[in-house]
TrEMBL record:
Residues 2-56 form the HTH lacI-type domain. This is LacI family transcriptional regulator. The lineage of its organism: Bacteria, Pseudomonadati, Pseudomonadota, Alphaproteobacteria, Rhodobacterales. InterPro entries: HTH_LacI (IPR000843), Lambda_DNA-bd_dom_sf (IPR010982), Peripla_BP/Lac1_sug-bd_dom (IPR001761), Peripla_BP_I (IPR028082). It comes from Aliiruegeria lutimaris. Keywords: DNA-binding, Transcription, Transcription regulation. Coiled coil: none annotated. GO terms for molecular function: DNA-binding transcription factor activity; transcription cis-regulatory region binding. The keyword DNA repair does not apply. It comes from the Bacteria. CDD domains: HTH_LacI, PBP1_AglR-like.
Amino acid sequence: MTSLKSLAEHLGLSQATVSRALNNYSTVNAETRERVLRAAREMEYRPNASARRLATGKAGAYGMILTTEGTPMLDPQFSDFMAGLTEALAGKERDVVLGGSPNERSTATYERFIRACKVDGFVITRPLLGDSRAELLERLGVPFVLHGRTAPEPDHAYYDIDNFGAFQRATELLMQLGHRKIALLNGRVDAMFAIMRRDGFLAGVNGLARAQTPISETPMTEQEGFRCMRAALETGVTAAICSSIHLALGAERAIHDAGLALGRDMSLICHDDDLSGLSTVSFSAPLTVTRAPIRDAGRAIAGMLEQLCDGADRASQQIIAPVELILRASTRPPITP
C-alpha cells in the first residue's frame, strides 16, 4: 500500500504539503492540490484513518444510537433506512458507528460518543416532542440531522415527509368514496409524525363525530394492529387508515377474523415505506397506500450530514419530501345495507 512518505517522495514535495493538499487546506494552491490528488488516485493512496483524524480533527464517521427496547436490527424500516444511508456514505469513505441506549430519551451514549470523539455528527431517528437528544446536541454544537421532526417547524436540520398532507388526502379519498365511519390506527402520541398524521386525518374527516372516527395511538406492531382493528370494527367502521404496514398486517387479520373481506366489506389504506422485505401488494386485496421510500430518506440524510459538517447553515438542510397516494383494490365505496 502506498504510504504518505512514498507519495510525497514521488511528487518531490514535503509530507506536510501533501497532507494539507489531501485534506483541502486553503493554504495549498489549486494547481498543487490537483497534482497531489491525481497522483494519489494513480498510486491508489489510502490515508490511514488515525492519521487523517489527527490531521483534520474529524472522525470520518457518523453516529446512530439505537434503543435496546425491542429488536431494532430486525426492523425492516431500520434495515432499509441504513441501506440508503450507508450506500450514500460509502462513496464518500464515511462510516456509521452504532451505539445502544435504554430508551429514546436517554442521552448518556451520545455524551460518551462525543467525549471519545468517535463521530463527527449524528442521525436521530424517531424524534419525539421536546427531544432531549436534540437539545443536548444543539447545546454542545454537534451537527445532527433528525429523521422526522421535534415540532411542526423545528430549528434543526431534518428530513421528513408530508405526513399531514398524506393522511389528509388518504382520508379525503375515503370520504369521497362515501365512507363516514373511518378508523385511524396510528403511532405513539409522543412522536411528531403521529401527531401530524392524526391532524391530517382530522382535517380529512371534516368534523365527523369522534364516535364515527375512532383513533388508536400505540406502538406500530402487528399485535396492536389486530387489537385496535378488532376494537374499531365493534364501532361499525367501514374503513381504516394504518400508519405502518405492520399495523395493516394486524388489521387485515382482524378483518378476516370478523368474517369480512378486505376491499369488499372493509376499505383499508396504509402508509408504505416501500420496504424491500414487505410488500403492500401481497395482501388479500392489494393495498391503497401513501408511499415515501425510506431508502430515499437515508440517502438524503447522508448528504445533509456532509453539508452540515462542511459548515452549511442548518436552515438550508430542512426537507419535507412529498408523499405519493397510490390507489389499489383495498378501497371501494361502502356496502349499503
